[in-house]
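User: Show me a protein chain along with its predicted structure.
Assistant: Here is one chain, sequence first, then structure tokens.
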Amino acid sequence: NEVDPAILTFTDAGGISHVIISYIKTSANGKRVWITHTTLDPGGRPMEPWTEFEIPAPSPDYVSPKDSRLYIMPNGTYQDRVFIVWTGNQVGAPAGQESSSWISYADNVNYDSWTTVFINRNSGGSTYNYKRVNSLMPLASGDQLMYVFEHLDYASLTGNPVGVDTRGLRSNDGGATWVDTGEITPGDGNYY
């Protein structure tokens, strides 16, 4: 069972071409984020074998991962760092407030050593907030990242959303820590 794939292809600063695929896979640990990686030969063909492994479990842990996305830092201090972001539910969080996000990143040429960081939980404009889509944007400096997500806001555990907005967080250290930058949309419950 492998779903929700994201594919990243790039040539690093050393001239090596890579293919990295992230996906959600059901294994002995439940549904988890996995990665597979290979490089390309001079003819542009994937080289065997592909390396496949589960992204390390973060703290706090997650269940029900979704919306995994891959990105690369194109320049700066963290040039060629690869990022995976995803949303899911934080284990042990209060009911209706579990919706969270994580980022995992790797620097080395083999992309086989990943660091996973918790970004945030239940962020939005109401008591109960659900992340629907997320995206990561490396900023021009090569050191900063902008994490943007859409959230549905609920006043109670049942019923319809009372708002839909977009929020952003910024990292100045290549994804290790995050600062909330606030709502990007007006925060008026605009349903686009």
